[in-house]
Structure formats: C-alpha cells, structure tokens
Amino acid sequence: MWARLKRLFRSVFGGLIEKAEDPELILQQTIRDMREKVPQMQNNVVQVMATEKLLQKEVTTLEREIKDYDAKVKAAITTNRDDIARTYITALTEKQTALDRARQQLETSHAASEQAKKFLDNYILQVKKRTAEAQQLVNEARAAKMQEQLSQTMASFQIGDDAGTFQEMRERIQRRSAAAEARMDLSTGGVESQIQDIEREALNMQVEDALTAYKRQMGLAPEVSSPAPPSIQSDSTGEKSLGPSDRAKALE
Predict the structure, then answer these.
(1) How many Cβ atoms from other residues are within 10 Å of residue 212's Cβ?
(2) CA-CA distances (angstroms) from residue 249 to 163, 229, 230, 237, 239?
(3) pLDDT in tens, 29-72
(4) What radius of gyration, in Å, describes the C-alpha atoms of the chain?
(5) d(CA 35, CA 12)
(6) Mind listing the domains of the chain with CATH numbers?
C-alpha cells in the first residue's frame, strides 16, 4: 500500500515539476550563474598576480641590499676593520638566504599566475561557447513552443470550434451586404431618383451654358452668328417669291 502511494505521489509531483520546468528559463539561469563566477575568478587571478608582483619587488630589494653589503664588506676589509666586515658578511648571508627563498617563491608564484590566467581565459571561452549554445537551444525551444501553439490552433480548426464561428460571422456579413445592396437598388431605381438625375443634368447644362457665355465674353470662344434673313426670289412676272427653304419655313 505504501509503495502504491509513494508511486502515486512521485508521478503527480514529477509531472508538475516537469511541466513547471521551462527549458528557456533554466538555460538562461545557468548562463547567469556561469557569468557571475567570472568576476570572482578574476579577483582570484588578480590576487595571485599581486603576490607575484610583491615577490618580484622583494627580490629586487634583496638584490640591491646584497650589493650594498658586498661593497661594505670590501670597504671594511680595506680599512682593516675585520670585526665590521664580519658583521656585514653575516647580514649579507642572511639577505642571500632570503633572496634564494624569495626567488623560489617568485618562480612558484609566476607559474601559479600563468596557470590562473590560462584557466580564466579558458573559462571565459567556455562561457561564450555555452552562451552561444544556450541561445541556440533557446531559439529551438521558442520554435518548438510556436509549433505547439500552431498545432493546437490547427487542431481547433479541424475540431470545428473556431471554424464554426468564422462561418457564422461570414454568413452574417453576407446577409448584411445583400440587404445593403437591395436598399441601394431600391433607392436608385425609383421615379424620384430619375427626377433627381434629370434635375442634375439640367443643372449641368446651365453650368455649361454659363461657362460658354463667360468664354465668349472673354474672347476665348467664337460668337454664335445670327440666322440669315429669308431670301426673296423674283419670278418671270417681276414678283418676288420666297426661296424653297423660306417656303418650307412659311408653311411651318
């Protein structure tokens, strides 16, 4: 019984944890952790290099002091002061021992500095490499997430939920469009609409006549010649008669 409950709890909480784990967030946190270690490692390298610098200064100082004691020993011997020469020789020996020890420490510190700098450079290179790899994985995770959303959307289209909504809205829009076209046909096909068209045409004609009159007044259009008077013809009896066109007009 206890084994079954344990398996149940593991399956439930394991599923929740797996759903809560976002690969993108985990990768970004990992990269942040790696980058946060860089300043600490740089500080350690700086301390190692500082130790090397101090040992180098100590070696330089000891070498100068040994050189000074050597000169003092020679000067004491020259002046027949062997007691003082012995004192300088003792101090010179101590400085020489310290110099040998400092040189060994300097050599070890120099090797440690070079190794620390090399390790830091390799670590920074690995951070850059891991960052690029993580960014690629993040892009792949985003693409996979987008594909999941698209597949869910396509599945909803296939199921018919959203498809039914689109079809219903399409039918409503088509009905409204047909009703609007019917109202337009009704409003433009009646007698009142025809009367409005005639009045609008008459107004256009008046405007054109006024424009022509303005152009004639400004000399931009030719004047309309007045009709010629009726022609009168004489017959053989000496009486004047109207021409054919005048007779036709007279009959009218």
Answers:
(1) 13
(2) 79, 12, 9, 24, 20
(3) 878 888 888 888 889 889 989 999 999 999 999 999 999 999 99
(4) 57
(5) 35
(6) 21-159 (1.10.287)
